[in-house]
Amino acid sequence: MVRVRFAPSPTGYLHLGNARTALFNYLYAKHTGGKLILRVEDTDRERSKKEYEDMIMEDLKWLGIEWDEGPDIGGNYGPYRQSERTEIYSNYVKKLQQTGHIYKCFCTPEELEEERKKAMAEGRPPRYSGKCRNLSPEEIKKLEEEGKPYVWRFRVPDGEFIIFEDLIKGTVEINVDEFGDFVIVRSDGSPVYNFVVVVDDALMEITHVIRGEDHLSNTPKQILIYRALGFQEPKFAHLPIILGEDRSKLSKRHGAVSVRAFRDDGYVSEAMFNGLALLGWHPKGDNEVLSKEQIISEFDIEDVHNAPAVFDRAKLKWLNGVYIREILDLEDLTQRAIPFFEGFGYKAEFEYYKKVMEAIRDSLETLMDIEERAKPFFVDDFHYSEEGKKFLEDDTGYKVVETFYEKIKQLDSITKEDFKKITKEIQKELGVKGKGLFMPIRVALTGETSGVDIATLVEVIGIERVKHRIQRALEYFG
């Protein structure tokens, strides 16, 4: 069975790149009938925070990504937080000590920096010289007695090439001489990422490691650790990086880059799921608006492109608009929109929100657009735009609004049909039509010369509010 994992560090918000990695792991697991494991890499004691862990999980769930094992739901391969697996790592460090795969290195940071500078000056890759590799037991004992701190380094075989088949990049070949003996346990006794990730992936029986290509340089080191511990190596797939529209690596200067920020900006989860899936992968047909089920059905990790994926913000916004306008159920959409309505100070009952949503959804790209689009349904005492004033400062325009008020002042209710009937009567009586007829009424009711369908507006806000707004305009321009 396919077993994949997503292993975030809880040191900040869920970045789009990490969200795409989580999504591709999820899609591959679902497509193959496998399992997705959520593992929290929280060994960075200073930066890791439980609140970030909670937010990452919340954002993953919001996206529609569910996992089969994890710190919140447990499983047979836990614990699922690295901070709770310290004893496990210690046992495998001992195993490497016993087999001679690691050794104590007493070199100071100053000595290592000097080595690095010398290598750079000579045009060599900056790698550890192996100075402590062959210390005698007596030399080691003396250094320990002097209280010299040490790290544990992995003994990399000289001149070996690590070759593996990457499911996206094809055959990858790396000479170990490029990096040399590397640290696996720091001087404070804490194991490093490349070591613990191998132990975790092996013990959790991960079959496929799907991650960003920024981890490609870690892979040969991890393969050496797999072999030293006698673990079976998983298959690797390194996802191309995500670029901004300017073809530089996606970062904060390109605008919002976290899932939470897009959520707060009024994007719906289905559009984000769909949009992230298209970052480096494409369905077989031309249609790019796909349901979760369609994407799972079509997705295969081997179909992911090797070239960098360009994040197209405008395309995501378009996709979001399609989901809002055409796909989401009105009741569901309204429920999701309530925090936005309330955030803009628009308070009402659910059924009223629903009527407003039905009236404005065709003009929305994100739920943040509610602020402007819904304003006519909630704000009665608005400002009149300079352009709008012209229509009511005109005698004919004022007469249109005055006549409109005469025809509604005795009404107890008003529908779209009533509005259309009344405006036809005014057209006949005053001989005005088009802009000359509808623009003065629109400005009187909204203060603007464009926006929501006026017949819909009057029906939704009701006759008393229509009367109030018309009276207010007549007083203002009278």
Automatic annotation (TrEMBL):
<keyword id="KW-0547">Nucleotide-binding</keyword>
<dbReference type="InterPro" id="IPR004527">
    <property type="entry name" value="Glu-tRNA-ligase_bac/mito"/>
</dbReference>
<keyword id="KW-0067">ATP-binding</keyword>
<dbReference type="GO" id="GO:0005829">
    <property type="term" value="C:cytosol"/>
</dbReference>
<feature type="binding site">
    <location>
        <position position="252"/>
    </location>
    <ligand>
        <name>ATP</name>
    </ligand>
</feature>
<feature type="short sequence motif" description="'KMSKS' region">
    <location>
        <begin position="249"/>
        <end position="253"/>
    </location>
</feature>
<dbReference type="InterPro" id="IPR008925">
    <property type="entry name" value="aa_tRNA-synth_I_cd-bd_sf"/>
</dbReference>
<dbReference type="InterPro" id="IPR020752">
    <property type="entry name" value="Glu-tRNA-synth_I_codon-bd_sub1"/>
</dbReference>
<keyword id="KW-0648">Protein biosynthesis</keyword>
<protein>
    <recommendedName>
        <fullName>Glutamate--tRNA ligase</fullName>
        <ecNumber>6.1.1.17</ecNumber>
    </recommendedName>
</protein>
<dbReference type="InterPro" id="IPR045462">
    <property type="entry name" value="aa-tRNA-synth_I_cd-bd"/>
</dbReference>
<keyword id="KW-0963">Cytoplasm</keyword>
<dbReference type="Pfam" id="PF00749">
    <property type="entry name" value="tRNA-synt_1c"/>
</dbReference>
<dbReference type="InterPro" id="IPR000924">
    <property type="entry name" value="Glu/Gln-tRNA-synth"/>
</dbReference>
<dbReference type="GO" id="GO:0000049">
    <property type="term" value="F:tRNA binding"/>
</dbReference>
<dbReference type="InterPro" id="IPR020751">
    <property type="entry name" value="aa-tRNA-synth_I_codon-bd_sub2"/>
</dbReference>
<dbReference type="Pfam" id="PF19269">
    <property type="entry name" value="Anticodon_2"/>
</dbReference>
<dbReference type="InterPro" id="IPR049940">
    <property type="entry name" value="GluQ/Sye"/>
</dbReference>
<dbReference type="InterPro" id="IPR020058">
    <property type="entry name" value="Glu/Gln-tRNA-synth_Ib_cat-dom"/>
</dbReference>
<keyword id="KW-0436">Ligase</keyword>
<dbReference type="InterPro" id="IPR014729">
    <property type="entry name" value="Rossmann-like_a/b/a_fold"/>
</dbReference>
<dbReference type="InterPro" id="IPR001412">
    <property type="entry name" value="aa-tRNA-synth_I_CS"/>
</dbReference>
<feature type="short sequence motif" description="'HIGH' region">
    <location>
        <begin position="8"/>
        <end position="18"/>
    </location>
</feature>
<feature type="domain" description="Glutamyl/glutaminyl-tRNA synthetase class Ib catalytic">
    <location>
        <begin position="1"/>
        <end position="318"/>
    </location>
</feature>
<comment type="similarity">
    <text>Belongs to the class-I aminoacyl-tRNA synthetase family. Glutamate--tRNA ligase type 1 subfamily.</text>
</comment>
<dbReference type="GO" id="GO:0004818">
    <property type="term" value="F:glutamate-tRNA ligase activity"/>
</dbReference>
<dbReference type="GO" id="GO:0006424">
    <property type="term" value="P:glutamyl-tRNA aminoacylation"/>
</dbReference>
<dbReference type="GO" id="GO:0008270">
    <property type="term" value="F:zinc ion binding"/>
</dbReference>
<comment type="function">
    <text>Catalyzes the attachment of glutamate to tRNA(Glu) in a two-step reaction: glutamate is first activated by ATP to form Glu-AMP and then transferred to the acceptor end of tRNA(Glu).</text>
</comment>
<comment type="subunit">
    <text>Monomer.</text>
</comment>
<keyword id="KW-0030">Aminoacyl-tRNA synthetase</keyword>
<feature type="domain" description="Aminoacyl-tRNA synthetase class I anticodon-binding">
    <location>
        <begin position="333"/>
        <end position="474"/>
    </location>
</feature>
<dbReference type="InterPro" id="IPR033910">
    <property type="entry name" value="GluRS_core"/>
</dbReference>
<dbReference type="GO" id="GO:0005524">
    <property type="term" value="F:ATP binding"/>
</dbReference>
